[in-house]
Specification:
alpha+beta
């Protein structure tokens, strides 16, 4: 699974309940595709530099999620059909290398790959050690 960030602009005519239901719908779309939500940021009202579909203001929302790359296309199709979303952008991100624990950054410990050893090699080492 890869880490992605979805940032999207929502039509300013939506009420708070409409924003919540749209957020829940997008979260369920991601989970339906087998994704795992990582971080969800609440929508913030922003002014636009240029109008999008005759709107000068919009709500900006973003979230991070893990998803298989092959399933991203299905998610994009669903996002395109949603009329309340003015624009969206999906970025592939690098997984975090440090985690904040108690305010202090800690490195993420990656498990070492297991090396398979043949039975014959183990027997040779045992014979060397035992001196037989």
């Amino acid at each position: 699974m890869k880490l992605y960030e979805l940032t999207y602009l929502i039509s300013p005519g939506l009420s708070e309940e409409g924003l919540k239901s749209l957020g829940e719908k997008i979260n369920s779309l991601i989970q339906k595709e087998g994704g795992v939500l990582n971080e969800v940021n609440l929508p913030i009202k922003k002014g636009l530099v240029y109008p999008i579909k005759k709107n000068k203001e919009t709500f900006l929302a973003s979230l991070n999620f893990y998803l298989e790359p092959g399933r991203l296309e299905n998610l994009e199709k669903e996002l395109k059909t949603e009329k309340k979303i003015l624009r969206y952008l999906i970025l592939a991100k690098k997984p975090p290398t440090k985690i904040l624990v108690g305010g202090k950054p800690r490195k993420v410990i990656k498990p070492k790959p297991k090396v398979k050893v043949e039975l014959k090699e183990i027997e040779k080492k045992l014979e060397e050690i035992l001196g037989e």
